[in-house]
Design goal:
Elements: E1 11-14, E2 17-20, H1 21-52, H2 55-67, H3 72-83, H4 103-118, E3 126-130, H5 134-139, E4 145-147, E5 154-158, H6 159-187, H7 190-203, E6 206-224, E7 230-245, E8 250-252, E9 265-272, H8 274-278, H9 288-295, E10 300-305, E11 308-313, E12 319-327, H10 330-338, E13 349-355, E14 358-364, E15 374-378, H11 391-394, H12 396-416, E16 420-423, E17 428-430, E18 443-445, E19 456-459, H13 465-483, H14 500-510, H15 512-540, E20 550-554, H16 556-576, H17 588-598, H18 603-606, H19 610-623, H20 629-738
Antiparallel strand pairs: 1-2, 3-20, 4-5, 6-7, 6-15, 8-9, 9-12, 10-11, 12-13, 13-14, 16-19, 17-18
Helix pairs in contact: 4-7, 12-13, 15-16, 16-17
Length: 742
């Protein structure tokens, strides 16, 4: 009988002490409250440790860099908190604050390439294969007969045959385990959650993936009734699931260093509504009385300010639910689980659920080997914390240089595009009485001002656009080098070579650093996470056909280079397989599937099923074996080549005849042109002779006319002189007669 079975006034022995049932319940309640305070204090210490470290400061800075916010806002806020408000306003308040974001394209580019490598649409980045057994290796190629170890009778099989059967059975079991795990991952949208985590890892530096954890799965089934109607049946089951956790909501043991598995455990928080809390009542491991007590209280939030933990009471209906997964002492777990009616005494790893500083649930860990069901991948690992550095942290300095250079471009453009005006205010006056500078404005100068330039001058500043742009360009090139994310990975060709081989080599070299990141992802996420799914299936799956000794093959790191090489090879495979020498060594269907996959086409969508192909081949065989289509294709190509050669011969003959005709026509044209030029020469000589004779005749006539004209002019001149003399004499005689004198 348990202590609760005794009446309240009944005395009983608890250890070495005699106490009543009421005393025992009071002692137990005090012990539970002590445990509540102990785990709450531990959570507060972990939250405070991370808040006072450099981790959250890096995350805020990375978020600002990614979204292109002003990088000085946080610094000014922290400076105000520490030193008070500034004494005077900054003098550069009018300076440019524009941002050229080089962080976000690099981060998005890295996330896209990582997701393309890790989560292919037609394949998995992991696999399960049987563990090699040394005994089976020795049995291969051994044709000695075997004996049943139980009966001692011959089995009728050789050692090689038995080894082949065992390996085939292990292979089928591994394929079944792969399908089972893949179905569970598909149901919980594992790839989508992982893509969110990869974005966290690249941007903030840390990806946190939680799982597998038990999740409730609900399915609906409609069954027919006798009256023809349908009845809805809802089935519920517990399945493994995974989800990405926001790094802001995960807190690890401060003593774990940079390996979270070395710590005692971890806390993670999420918001739950009152409805979700009520749904926990009655579930295994949850204390109904504690849940009701929490619902009677107002929700509180835990935050860190001035290096101490503060609890704020909020008026919202959302509570902060803190889940702890890690080490719990057996006596502590026994005390907590006894309140739920399921006492556990041998638990060293457990799960606690805390709301409003009260433990409302306690249950054992579902992980088989007592490891933490959480994985962390960092873009670049830190030495003292599980949370690492992101790509934004690597680009911070060059982002500052680009922003500074571009802001100076804006400031320089503002000052250099307009001159600085210096004037004597009393010497010039604006006509409209406004001192604002506008186009076509009239200024009035005083009358005693001889030169207006003595009172009004404009000074221009030099533009340094090219120098500032060169700084920004150099910073962007340095960003490519520091982040190992060249422009070619973003689709920009740059100075890449023109040849296909050179492009492939350059592309592979550009992806080498990214492939290293993928290898780290395989080690930190894929292998341990899928291993826990394998352990879950081995422990809880009822199908014995999928169980066996397997190992996880994380192959995301090789997916990129293998696919690139295969795609390049498959594009040339069709030409190679036309050679009849290789036809007997190839599988036509597999070859076609590989080629279609290289072009990212699902083979099942366009290829006929194998049974249909087999029926068609059987029908053709009954009608007579047709010629191999590849041989027929080769013959057709040969005939096409022959026809092409014949066409080329005919074309050469036609061109030779045409060239001969063109040569004869050209020769006749030259002869005609020579005769025409000779006739034109003779005509020109005759015309020149006639023109010369006419010119000589005209010249003689002109000379005779000139002599006669000179004589006539002389006679006319003599007559004019004589006339003038007679007029003078007559005027002189008149003056003498009149008495005026000469």
């Amino acid at each position: 009988m348990s202590p609760q079975d005794f009446p309240p006034e009944t005395a009983m022995m608890v250890g070495d002490e005699m106490m009543t049932n009421e005393q025992y319940e009071s002692m137990q309640k005090q012990e539970v409250e002590r445990l509540h305070g102990m785990f709450t204090k531990m959570r507060d210490q972990w939250v405070q440790h991370r808040a006072t470290s450099d981790v959250e400061k890096r995350w805020r800075r990375a978020t600002q860099l990614y979204f292109g916010e002003h990088t000085q806002s946080t610094g000014e806020f922290e400076n105000t908190l520490r030193n008070g408000p500034p004494a005077r306003k900054s003098q550069d308040g009018n300076r440019s604050r524009v941002v050229i974001n080089i962080v976000r394209p690099k981060v998005d580019q890295a996330v896209a390439r990582m997701c393309e490598i890790l989560f292919p649409v037609d394949d998995r980045n992991w696999g399960i294969k049987p563990t090699p057994l040394p005994d089976l290796v020795e049995m291969v190629n051994n044709n000695s007969p075997t004996v049943d170890p139980m009966t001692g009778q011959p089995t009728g099989l050789t050692a090689n045959q038995e080894a082949q059967l065992v390996m085939q059975a292990a292979k089928e079991a591994a394929e079944g385990m792969t399908r089972s795990i893949d179905d569970s991952l598909t149901e919980c949208k594992f790839n989508g959650e992982s893509r969110k985590g990869v974005e966290d890892g690249v941007r903030l530096g840390s990806m946190v993936l939680y799982g597998p954890f038990p999740a409730r799965q609900t399915s609906k089934v409609w069954t027919p009734r006798a009256d023809g109607t349908q009845m809805l049946q809802i089935n519920e089951s517990i399945v493994p699931a995974s989800m990405r956790l926001d790094p802001w909501d995960v807190f690890f043991d401060p003593s774990c260093g940079n390996d979270h598995q070395r710590g005692r455990g971890f806390f993670f928080r999420r918001n739950v509504t009152r409805k979700e809390l009520r749904q926990l009542v009655g579930l295994p491991g949850f204390d109904a009385e504690c849940i009701r007590e929490v619902l009677r209280q107002q929700p509180n939030r835990v935050r860190v300010a001035e290096q101490r933990v503060i609890r704020d009471t909020i008026k919202e209906d959302a509570y902060e639910m803190w889940t702890y997964h890690g080490e719990i002492e057996p006596d502590e777990m026994e005390l907590l689980s006894s309140r739920t009616g399921d006492p556990l005494t041998d638990v060293t790893f457990g799960v606690l659920v805390i709301v409003n500083d009260k433990i409302i649930g306690a249950m054992p860990s579902w992980v088989a080997d007592n490891t933490l069901p959480i994985d962390v991948w960092c873009w670049r690992k830190s030495d003292d914390s599980p949370f690492g550095y992101g790509l934004a942290d690597e680009l911070e300095h060059q982002q500052r240089v680009v922003n500074s250079a571009w802001r100076q471009v804006m400031d320089n453009g503002r000052t250099s595009l307009g001159g600085q005006i210096v004037m004597k205010k009393g010497m010039v006056i604006p006509q409209n009485q406004s001192w604002e500078i506008t186009p076509n404005k009239i200024w009035l100068a005083k009358d005693d001002l001889a030169d207006v330039r003595q009172a009004f001058s404009v000074f221009e500043f030099n533009s340094h656009l090219q120098e500032l742009l060169a700084i920004a360009q150099a910073a962007m090139q340095f960003a490519d080098v520091e982040s190992s994310m060249p422009q070619i990975m973003g689709g920009e060709k740059g100075s890449a070579p023109e040849t296909v081989g050179g492009m492939v080599m350059l592309y592979n070299n550009a992806n080498s650093v990214l492939r290293q990141r993928v290898k780290l992802y395989d080690d930190a996420i894929t292998r341990p996470h899928i291993s826990r799914y394998y352990d879950w299936k081995m422990a809880n799956d009822p199908d014995p056909a999928i169980k066996g000794d397997f190992e996880i093959d994380a192959r995301g790191s090789t997916a990129l280079i293998e696919r690139d090489i295969q795609n390049q090879a498959l594009l040339n495979l069709a030409n190679i397989t036309n050679n009849p020498r290789y036809i007997p060594h190839l599988k036509e269907r597999e070859e076609l599937k590989a080629i279609l996959k290289a072009f990212k086409v699902n083979p099942e969508e366009i290829m006929k099923p194998e049974d249909v192909v087999a029926q068609e081949q059987k029908a053709q065989a009954e009608q007579g074996a047709p010629q191999d289509p590849r041989i027929a294709a080769a013959q057709m190509q040969l005939q096409a080549k022959q026809l092409e050669l014949e066409d080329r011969d005919k074309q050469r003959q036609f061109e030779a005849g045409r060239n001969a005709e063109e040569l004869g026509i050209r020769r006749e044209g030259l002869q005609y042109n020579a005769q025409r030029e000779q006739a034109e020469y003779e005509i020109a000589m005759t015309d020149s002779s006639l023109k010369r004779d006419v010119a000589l005749t005209k010249l003689g006539q002109d000379a005779q006319l000139t002599r006669e004209q000179i004589a006539a002019k002389e006679r006319l001149s003599m007559l004019q002189i004589d006339n003038d003399r007679q007029m003078f004499n007559a005027e002189a005689a008149i003056k003498v007669r009149q008495g005026s004198g000469i």
